[in-house]
Amino acid sequence: MPDHILFLTGHLAEPQLRRVLTELGDAGFAWTVHDLGLQVAALMTADMIGRRLGDTFGADRILVPGRCQGDLDALSRRLGVPVERGPDDLIDLPEFFGRAGGGVDLSAHGVTVFAELTEAPHLNVPGIVAAAAALRADGADVIDLGCLPQTPFPRLEEAVRALRADGHRVSVDSTDPTELLRGARAGADYLLSLSLDTLHLADETDATPVLIARTPGDLGSLLAAMERLDARGRAYLADPILEPIPYGFAASLARYHELRRRAPQARLLMGTGNLSELVDADTAGMHALLLGVMAELDIGALLTTQVSPHCRSAVREIDAARRMMHAAHAAGRLPRGLGDALLGLHDRKPFPYPAERVAEFAAGVRDPNFRIQVSEDGIHAYNRDGLRTGTDPFALWPQLGVADDADHAFYLGVELARAQIAWQLGKRYVQDEALRWGCMARAGNAAGPADDTATPCRDGREAA
User: Fold this and answer.
1) Does the predicted model carry a pTM greater than 0.85?
2) Residue 35 bridge partners (DSSP)
3) Domains of the chain
């Protein structure tokens, strides 16, 4: 017998919920929809369900709106039926039940991320350790100490030892052989970068060298260095160097492809900073593309920097991209429908309901609390007194009639500003929730839910 799922909802969402479940067809479960006796499904709480639900209709499990507050484990014990949260918006039910590519494991990846501290010579050791901890939290696997030309780094050995003591793997990045040896003797795991002219340094340390060409674009000298270390049985990473636009970027991509063809088993590294740092464009798409190339060519290490302010989330973006591309490559599928971590400015489905459906929701409202939704046509604000639609909050504001209620006015001002940004960019707007910016926004920056005592309606776009 298939599972029997009881869907709990409210007056406004019930017709749409039944429509979505019907369109799912043979979803592998039987279903019952029950109106719990409230207007807005998103206002549902575990305590409310416990008071109002007298019959579980023989269900094997109960699905409640994603924004339902309260202790569902305690409610499950009380009802004798597992109670689970569904998606925030019922428009996402097909994806929730695996009809849109959901459920992909993104825990695995195949890329080691080297995050360079380019300012390391100018930091004290506690500053280096603190910066490394932040990079590790964002997804870095190796902390790269960038040495600067003609800049003394007297604390290099101390920094390497402190990072190792804090559990980091460490690389030293320098054009000065003396600095490379100092770092290696202090315990560095990797040396960036050796060529045929400095390959003798590999014999003086156990650190893994990263090999580059003797001169830019000279793939032959890079292959020669690789062959010498292969003959000695030494591990290494090879980097043909990704060049910036318009100074040979396309040709450098071709070199990676050619090196992989000629050395199918070699471990390769790609440095992405020449692209992300030197193009005035948002970097998430760049990292998605480069990690896709790396997945196809089996490039297992990446060096990145976060120097320019517009690259401040590079490590987080790379961490998300390496997982997405690994999953896509492993499954032989397009990297689509695998999460929204790299969708910062736009969403794939920004406007789940057309203006006509919003008008239907508005027609069913019988209380004074404002619901705000966004469609392709603009911002919709409605309560029992009617529906107002526009694209400019300043034009909508005089129609709301709350100027004398400071708390309500402040709340609606915040929500209308979010709604306008969502409409302008094509982002999903959910009332009482901060806009989502993917992995580009640091955790903890999002605002929490609004105070329900000011505006009891938490979301006009009904959840299941």
Assistant:
1) no
2) 9
3) 3-96 (3.40.50), 112-331 (3.20.20.20), 339-464 (no CATH)
